[in-house]
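Running co-folding for calcium ion.
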Amino acid sequence: MLVCVAPLSVISAEPGRESDTPRLRVGVYENPPKIFLDEAGQPTGILGDLLRHMADREGWQLEPVPCLWQACLSALALGEIDLMPDVALTPSRATRFDFHEVPALLSWSQIYVAAGREQPTSLLELQGRRLAVLQGSVQHDYLMTFFTGMDLPVRWVLVDSLEAGFKAVLDGRADAVAANQFYGDQRAEGTDLIRAPVVFLPSRLYYAATPGRSPKVLTTIDDYLDLWRNDPGSLYFETLRRWEPRRASGPLPAWLWWSLGGLSAMLSVALLFGALLRRQVQRQTHRLQESEQKLSTILNSVQAHIYIKGTDFRYQYVNQKVADLLGAPPEAIVGCRDEDFFDADTCRLLKENDGRVLLRGERFSNEEVNRVKGQKAPHVFLSEKLPLRTPTGEIYALCGISTDITEHRQIQEQLHQLSFFDALTGLPNRRLLLDRVRRGLSSSARTGYDGALVLLDLDNFKSVNDTLGHDAGDRLLCAVAERIQRRLRATDTLARLGADEFVVLLEDLALQPDRAVVAVRHLADEWLAALAEPFALDGAPYVISVSLGVALFSDAAEDVDTLLKGADLALQAAKRLGHNRLQFFNPAMQVAINRRSQLEGALRQAIESRSLALHLQPQVNTAGETVALEALARWEAPGLGTISPAEFIPLAESTGLIVPLGEWVLEQACAYLADWQGDEQLKRVVLAVNISPAQFRHPNFVAHLESTLERSGCPPERLELEVTESLLIDELEQVIQRMENLRAHGIRFALDDFGTGYASLSYLKRLPLALLKVDQSFVRDLLTDPNDEAIVRTIIALGQSLDLKVLAEGVETEAQAKRLKALGCTLLQGYLYGKPAPLERWREDRRLTVAPTN
Ligand code: C2E
Ligand code: CA
Ligand code: CA
């Protein structure tokens, strides 16, 4: 995408002009969506926004001057304002104002009428009707010339704003109103007015300036328009698209065809008129000349190429537009053939089309691409050609009308490109993809062949942008797209959905879903291999990883949303598994997701209403006496039953609920400890509380703990915090600092689940730890797996050398306990000594045997 930061006028500086940061008084008349004032009183709409984009870059100060159209033009002529948007270039205006060269906007005029009334199908049918037009507008000029030229009476309703014209029709004071299609389509929307199939006066709109006042501004406007109109990603197209009226898509707007109908109706009448004139030729030679002149005025004022060719394919008549196109006066063209003006390919095509009309009497209406000799760019025409017959029915000539739609076509294509393709990679965007998915699903339903949607997401793409810059990020995305694209079949679609998310649509994979799965795996393996190769970014090799989520058509019941959601769930699952993983959607995922969101809501409520519980599990010495209790959270969810901490703790961690949950556990634990101070036995017991990494790192953690200790009056030296090795992965210094601060209060630390994580010896030495808890996975198979025994032995030795106590978790049998004690383990915890249970149970029926000293 083109990003234009430097003002263009600096790039193409010319000496000797007006001041460098001009103040521009801009005439603004209400003509949405082309130009109008926004709420802040600034010009907006297509032409207003474009001007503001330019002004921002150039440092122009825009001073909007609200005015009515006619008054705006007069003010411009008088130099009371400097610039006026939305002005079509006419010969008379060319003498009164300065114009730039590249048109800012292409526009057509339309007739709007009340729905339900008889609709005119050509301008001629407006004869005798009340027609509202904006006084002094190009439509006014044109229609005036047209109707007077044709000698057709029209009842003019002259208005001084387009709004007044539309209102006149709505109030029944006029039968029709003429307006540019931008304004008209927008104004008619939601009202009883509709667009009649009558189009006329294609025009190019410019910013007009007071003569001689702002030549540099006009050149700069041209520079921007030139640059922007060649770049589909530019502000120009962004602006057009923002203001585009919602209109039917398709290669050609239907109204263009209608306009041809209108034009040809007009032409037939003109020809008839000519024939009548010829009949009167002997009688009224003088009147004939006058009328022929009238006719030629009309034909020359029509914005279309009109010509008559004889059966010898030689021109018999051309209007001024044809003369302009071919670069010769009409007299010089008459008698010539296409070969004299067009290149060979064009001539072949014209001959064939014309032949159908001249030899077979067909009526031709279609697009023609014509290239004039010596001109670089071809013109695209919409051509309508009819045979002309003598009274006995013989074809003696062809009459053609060709409307030049080249520019319109270019803009259409660019808009199409913009709305269906991603500007960075040129790949189809979400909109186009959805369309193809829809079609893919319905074709799969017909053929029975399964397909798949594969979402592909770059892992940690953000870090590329952050460390190497956005340019490098953009280049990486393009390179990724290219590598995948090269490995696709012709029928597959690769699209870009967003930042670093791509999607591949695979159709016609196999008849059976399991075969389709195999096919997807095969393809995905190829992509993974291709993407595993380093990318060259800024000269250095860069390695990425991706995650892939797949949903099969057969899982989606022909529904696009279901398919996308399925692929997305699969992608999330793949991401959780780690890098370079591929995951297929399965219905269990959906179930899991539903349950997760249900649980999240319920957990939030449980925390708020303090309806979680704490159970306690004893930790014993070799004599079997309790030295500590571990607090374990329990949740009985109404309607959902008992939810295991193995399920709700990870959920709380991933949703941030772990912070309020952990705060509640600490408050509860401190309340217990404070309470126990009055109990002979319990006052000797330590209470261990599990602390999740996210909770420990939370900025408020220490403050909350300190205030809880103070408020409860609990002895800090009886509180033990169990942290896991994952806390030590990063920002170790900060973590140590925090632990030491708390240690200074007397709080003790245990390292939970030891042996499963990352801790290295060098860390261990620096942490203020009191206890290592051997993870229960090593205890489980201690008696059968020599590896586990070796690990436990090592941990115990490590503890001794670092002067740390070692506790074994998950002790279920006497045999395990015996072996652990033999290995030198002095503390034990597990079902053998008691399952986690509420405090009351320990106090009442079970009775703890608390160690005499601790
Ligand atoms: P943990 O900290 O490793 O807790 C020990 C787990 O082992 C507890 O599971 C306990 O019931 C279980 N256990 C104890 N003895 C035995 C035994 O002999 N055999 C077997 N098979 N299991 C035994 P629980 O209560 O389901 O808790 C699971 C995990 O949830 C805990 O693992 C801890 O990581 C987390 N958790 C529980 N409560 C809290 C809490 O309040 N805060 C935080 N952050 N995490 C908690
Ligand atoms: Ca624990
Ligand atoms: Ca543990």
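Result summary
Confidence is low (pLDDT under 50) at residues 1-6, 9-17, 246-262, 280-284.
The first strand starts at residue 23 and ends at 28.
Job closed.
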